[in-house]
Design brief:
The complex is a heterodimer. Chain A is an alpha+beta fold. Chain A contains ten helices and 19 strands. In chain A, strand 5 and strand 6 form a beta hairpin. In chain B, helix 2 crosses helix 3, helix 7 crosses helix 9 and helix 8 crosses helix 9. Chain B is globular, with a radius of gyration of 17 Å. Classes of the chains: A alpha+beta, B mainly alpha.
Chain lengths: 413, 150
């Protein structure tokens, strides 16, 4: 329909028009105001000062070169780099994790390395072209359609005008089949049409890819070995290892979702990432099984992600602080949280982490943290164990006091 | 934007973070944030995908029978078809021909999907004045389409 074409075309117009239209005019109603000229001058001066400060901070931060081994990073920078919540408030800054068994916390022994890498993601501009995306898609599309039993159709180019700069190819016939390219990765995603009436599963060469949530991780890995081999052959990759992550429904305690990730441990170095599926910057194939009935039936999807050459590099090697030093910070309340909602987080009851159950190293967006786990409850109905997780940077940072004070001020506002 | 609230509500009801939601749609988290803040809106195909993802009827997000679509349809002369490619660039050129105020009013209505009283309040104008400007702008757009400029 023409009106839809026009409606859609408006989403792709020059963003400067949208920015101008979005902001409210400074003074919608014209009224005579005394000393208007001076007010305007004062506003201009303020704007210049603010712009100057912003530019100074931007260049100061963007040209910042970390030194190695000492406290090169401030607490605020670390929170920013790791994408952790900014409004922390002492030991209230934790998230809760529900597990049916402690094994699903995936605690690994603390590494013996004196230095830990901080990984950086380096956007690769030169590959962001339709030509490159089509080359990526053309390499796999025919094989993919044959393997997943999907009829081939015209792949249409779609340029999403957003700060992440993502290009995508998709077909009208299969709305959940995409090839995409952003500055860091090239990806493929496929989900069979989700139905409200029947479960939908992926089939590979006519064989259904399915698992039972009651299976152990080992059983799941063994039962999907055939699918791993077929998917690796499909994408011409060697991903011999399997990572399994589960989420549990917060009320029923039933398994909500299982992510089965095929990857290469050597590429995701021996540290535990917050999620192999989500956080680890390594090539991977993820098959996700959704079990909960969220208004649609259980279904599954598959995605393949490949990092562009040079997209992931070690940004710095930082000296690991001792567990004792990390505990000092933990008990002092200098912890970082990853709760989705800052206001909910502040409302959480305070947790005393003395006598915590586990400590391990976890990476968030390439930044290593000591992660501490304290059992805070067990659901009597379903036996789900609720752990509080709090994070402390695994290396010395400066500006802790100032950072946490500023967070408390923010929270008070 | 009502669609902004609808997206945020559906996402939070499913206990998805913006990142998880963005991953499922293959867009950036920043874009999801902008949708939910009403700074940007998704296109129709994406709205369909969002509805599909949450298993809700598309009307929960957008009403295809809304006056807005009829007004947009009215901008296209009968029998005319819009070019399949390059339409956004042509719209850019069309917006350049408008005064900044008229362009802003047009986008508030047809991009941000605001209703006339809301726009009138935002710009300190009378409601009728807003409707009159929008009507004139639609006529200009129709003329541009007719003349093949769009």
């Amino acid at each position: 329909m023409n009106s839809t074409a026009l409606f859609d075309a408006l989403t792709e117009i020059n963003e400067r028009f949208l920015d101008l239209a979005f902001v409210a005019p400074a003074s919608p109603v014209k009224t005579k105001r005394p000393r208007r000229r001076f007010a305007v001058l004062a506003e201009c001066a303020c704007l210049l000062l603010v712009a100057g400060a912003v530019l100074f901070l931007y260049y100061a931060v963007s040209t910042y070169v970390p030194t190695f081994g000492d406290a090169a990073f401030s607490a605020a920078e670390v929170a920013d780099m790791a994408g952790l919540n900014r409004m922390t408030d002492g030991t209230k800054a934790y998230r809760t994790i529900d597990v049916s068994d402690d094994a699903y916390l995936y605690i690994e022994p603390l590494p013996s390395d004196e230095y830990l890498p901080i990984y950086g993601l380096y956007p690769q501009n030169r590959l962001m072209t339709e030509e490159n995306l089509r080359a990526f898609a053309d390499r796999y599309y025919g094989k993919i359609c044959a393997a997943f039993g999907v009829p081939e159709a015209e792949l249409q180019f779609r340029d999403e005008k957003d700060p992440g700069r993502l290009l995508a190819l998709m077909t009208k016939e299969q709305p959940f089949l995409f090839f995409s390219l952003n500055r860091l990765t090239e990806s493929f995603h496929f989900s069979p049409e989700i139905s409200k009436d029947a479960a939908s599963a992926i089939t590979l060469d006519g064989q259904t890819v399915s698992i039972d949530p009651a299976m152990t991780d080992e059983e799941i890995a063994a039962s999907l070995e055939w699918a791993r081999e077929k998917l690796c052959a499909l994408f011409d990759v060697d991903l011999p290892d399997v990572g399994i992550e589960r989420t549990f429904h917060v009320y029923s305690g039933e398994t909500d979702c299982i992510y089965v990730t095929f990857y290469k441990k050597a590429d995701a170095p021996g540290h535990v990432w917050s999620s192999i599926f989500y956080d680890s910057p390594c090539d991977r194939i993820v098959v996700t099984f959704y079990f909960k009935d969220n208004g649609w039936r259980p279904h599954s999807d598959v995605r393949f992600t490949r990092y562009l050459p040079d997209a992931v590099r070690t940004a710095a090697n930082v000296k690991r602080i001792s567990l004792e030093r990390a505990e000092e910070l933990l008990y002092g309340g200098y912890v970082f949280g990853i709760h989705a909602c800052p206001l909910c987080m502040a409302r959480q009851p305070e947790v005393d982490f003395h006598g915590y159950a586990y400590a391990t190293i976890r990476y968030f967006r390439g930044v290593p943290f000591y992660a501490f786990y304290k059992l805070v409850g067990i659901n009597e109905e379903n036996g789900i164990r609720v752990y509080a997780e709090a994070l402390v940077p695994a290396f010395e940072v400066y500006g802790l006091e100032e950072y946490f004070e500023s967070q408390r001020d923010l929270h008070r506002e | 934007m009502e669609i902004a609230n609808a997206i945020a509500q559906l996402r939070t009801a499913e206990q998805l973070s913006q990142k998880e939601f963005a991953d499922r749609l293959f867009v950036s988290r920043e874009l999801v944030s902008k949708w939910e803040l009403g700074e940007r809106r998704p296109d129709y195909a994406t709205i369909e995908r969002i509805a599909g993802l949450f298993g809700v009827p598309i009307e929960r997000l957008i009403d295809r029978n809304d006056l807005l679509f009829r007004e947009l349809e009215g901008c296209i002369p009968k029998g005319a078809t819009l070019p399949a490619k390059g339409l956004p660039a042509l719209l850019d050129r069309f917006l350049e021909t408008l005064s900044p105020r008229d362009a802003n009013l047009f986008l508030n209505r047809y991009y941000y999907m605001k209703k006339a009283p809301e726009i009138a309040k935002k710009y300190g104008l009378k409601e009728n004045h807003v409707r009159s400007i929008l009507s004139k702008t639609r006529k200009k757009l129709k003329k541009a389409v007719k003349e093949g400029k769009l």
